Amino acid sequence: MLLAEADIPYDRLLDMDSINPDFPQTDVVLIIGANDVTNPAARTDQSSPIFGMPILDVDKARTVMVIKRSMNPGFAGIDNPLYYFDKTLMLFGDAKGFVGDIVRELTGGGH
Question: How many contiguous H segments (helices) and E segments (strands) does the chain have?
Fold first, then answer.
């Protein structure tokens, strides 16, 4: 749903049920701004307003990179414990700039 807002063709999107089993074998997950749909409290915290909500199981990947402008909470107005895990790297700033830098480094264009 988030990539649809970025004009990604629908045939390139995956359903949560089809992608979630892949996360435990995933080396790196890159998240851009998604707060609530990546919040593991939806699975674990019965007092959370999002408890029971389907989420992307990104916390099961080996490394999580999150690009956000700030630590502001998402639509539900709650903190995301994922951001405090040892395996989570927080990048604060403009997502377009960060992604461009990452692509250049991975393709060898950064030198």
Answer: 3, 3
- Residue corresponding to tokens 């060898």: 108
CATH number at residue 58: 3.40.50.1220
Residue 111 lies in a domain: no
Give the SS3 label for residue 88: strand
List the catalytic residue out of 15, 27, 36, 45. Answer: 36
Catalytic residue list contains 17: no
What are the tens digits of pLDDT across the range 36-90?
999 999 999 999 999 999 999 999 999 999 999 888 877 888 999 999 999 999 9
| pTM: predicted TM-score of the whole model, two decimal places | 0.83
Question: Is 31 part of a structural domain of the chain?
Answer: yes
